[in-house]
Amino acid sequence: MTKLFTLLAVLLLVQPTAIFAQKDKESEIKLDSSFIKILTILKDLKYEPEGKVIPLGEMGQIKVPKGFKFLNAKQSKQVLEDIWGNPPSNETLGMLFETNGSPVDSVNSWAFVIQYDGIGYVKDEDADDVDYQELMTDMKKETSETNAERSRLGYPTVDLVGWASTPFYDKDRKTLHWAKNLKFSGEETNTLNYDVRVLGRKGLFSLNAVGSIDNLPHIKSKINDVIASVEFSQGNRYQDFDSNIDEIAAVGIGGLVAGKVLAKVGFFALIAKFWKLIVGGLIVAGGAIRKLFTGRNEDTETT
Length: 303
Prior knowledge:
The protein is an alpha+beta fold. It has 2 domains: 60 residues, no CATH class; 223 residues, Protein Transport Mog1p, Chain A (3-Layer(aba) Sandwich).
């Protein structure tokens, strides 16, 4: 199915107008304008290759890690809002996709979304004292309490199943990462939220990935390369902190994991829901186009 979808995507991207104009003997292919917009965006995406060093605003940079490609802030905004259906935001600095990945790939659609949050200098003195199991209990309760409002607004309810990967703080590298296992109502497969924080003098870089829980082993195998790819510029590093002039963040390591300050990036949890809808729609459209070219339905073929 993946190969078929790739072929159809190529056909759509090369000559979308010509293909849309053709008619089946029995019916006309009608595609919503949103799909045409998505196809146009996909066609125009320009990725930076692995090894390329790219500024992340004024605070730091990223060296695209091996096996990945980078999408700039403007195009990342298009992916997040126009393809994945997220609310408008100007905070994204870029996205990291796997080299063979795509925003509409049915297997490798996950990506790390990169942001900067100037919350101040995060003291890490509590790193060894956080009881992450107790913290998880509190987070489950808080998540459950939001479901009534989510239902009222028309969103699926969500249950926090537990840690997909227990929080780990690297004192030497000043980096923190963890993963949550989430269950959305109506979804057969659980959702994975993988979070990374790289601490700096005046704030932190936040990297968030959302995908299927089945992606966990693969993402974990890449996580060290992803973390090492982002760094603060000289003067903005964690060790450059000046207690006389710099502000201290209101939370420590435990607070970052609990998300009390960074709750605004929580909307990435909706990505998994929206990309499945988009991919499903494109596959349906692709099936109609395949029938147009071959006179056969895909589900009548043998593998």
